[in-house]
Amino acid sequence: LLVTGRRIPRSHCAVKVDGAAVGEVTSGTFSPTLKQGIALALLDTAAGLGEGDVVAVDVRGRTLECEVVSPPFVASHVR
Predict the structure, then answer these.
(1) Residue 73 region by backbone torsions, left for phi larger than 0, else alpha for psi between -120 and 50, else beta
(2) What are the tens digits of pLDDT across the range 38-77?
(3) 4-47: per-residue pLDDT in tens?
(4) DSSP state string for 4-56
(5) 17 and 55 in contact (C-beta within 8 Å)?
């Protein structure tokens, strides 16, 4: 997940779509390269989420908008 802004989702935060839980964050941190928060999450395949979909992460009662992306978050420069 890529976070819109600089806030950081943490493990065990609920991932929601339209108020319904569709997953859980397993880890999150701030990416100095991207200058935004990033997170790994387990998402329910039945939710039908794909790359580019927007989800909400509940971080201590506040909603954090995130975009679903596939790792790696930054392109490798190694050949």
Answers:
(1) alpha
(2) 999 999 999 999 999 999 999 888 899 999 998 888 888 8
(3) 877 899 999 999 999 999 999 999 999 888 888 999 999 999 99
(4) SSS----TTPEEEETTEEEEEEEEEEEETTTTEEEEEEEE-GGG---TT-EEE
(5) yes
